[in-house]
Amino acid sequence: MKPRSIDTKLLLLNFNQGIFFGYNWAVLGPYLRALGYSGLVFGVLGGTSILFSSISTILAGIISDLKDSKIVLVLGTILYSIVFILFYIPSLPTLLAAYILLGIANGFLMTGMDVYTSRVGKDETLHYTFSYVRSAMSFGGAIGSFMGWLPIFISVEFNRELISSYRDAFLLLLILALTNIIVSLKLRGLHGILTSNKKTSLRKIFSLKGLGRFYYIVITSTLIGLGAAMSIHNISYYFAAKYNVTSGEVGSIFGLQQLIMAIIMIKLPNIADKYGGPLRTYLLTTILSIPLLIAMTLVNNYYIASTIYLVRSILMNVSSPLYTAFALSLVPRDKRGIATSILNLSSRIPTGIGRAIGGWLLDIDYELPLRITALLYSISLAFLASCFKDYLRRKY
Predict the structure, then answer these.
(1) Could you say which DSSP state residue 191 is in?
(2) CA 359, CA 368: separation in Å to the nearest integer?
(3) Which residues contact 230 (CB under 8 A, 6 or more apart)?
(4) How many domains are there within the chain?
(5) What is the pTM (predicted TM-score) of this model?
């Protein structure tokens, strides 16, 4: 059963955020490499960002359950605007500050969006709602990724140094970030526990009872987060270092990935209903992606490697809305703020550590992080399947 409608402002907010995510993913690796920073520095900056996002994720979940997830989203959009100003200044202290604020903003926005999405519709159509919202973000991500060519265009057309062009592009993104603040302010308020019932005790608000098998999801996300951090989160630097490509080439691959995913995500809930449900569909697509990680390490041609990466990334990520919807369906609605925080935290903490380790390994052997990721993915997906055998047997 499909949901009747989805808040267009929520879709627009996710679309715009996708643009920022896609652009940063494509540009930051080549930008820092152009500035002369090593893979270790890139990994440490990324890891620092993730660690700060872990703190903001906890706060976002608490605020969402106590008050309103809309407050969290507004704060996140404001902070994201400041990030682009800081990225414009290429000194290491300023870049560190930018990565810290980026982490805090991402923690607020990703947690706030998941909580808002999980409460704005009915539970029986949750996998549809999440898929449509994530599809909007992927469409934005495609545009943002193709904008990896923007600094190249500015450099060629206006005869500016590439580093200066990267900086100019951040200022253009700032304009869109400011409009996103307005979009977040226009979202419908969804009151939390404290707003709805002021007599509710703090012990009840922060109680983790009733989460049940949700903790199996947390363990799975921790292993996947660690694996992704060691290689995939540093992939733009990997391509720039191994194949000497710019943000344009990297952005094109990621943009194409996001575009294809956005289209598939619209149809994926129907496919899941016909062929075994959200969890089975998620496991099938992600398992198929693992051999392609190994295949990337066996080639030395950018076009072949990037094509393999494209297919791998689609298989690994296209079902993520189904995974999130399944995870939150295990949790009572009034606990979804803290549950979302725990879920995001379970991937962010190992991600913060993993990015630094992965960056260090990149300086030693480009392929080793990808091989370790394949191993961690295999372990995590086997664990997930073993913990939810009853769901895999269900007929939909």
Answers:
(1) B
(2) 11
(3) 354, 355, 357, 358, 361, 369, 372, 373, 376
(4) 1
(5) 0.76
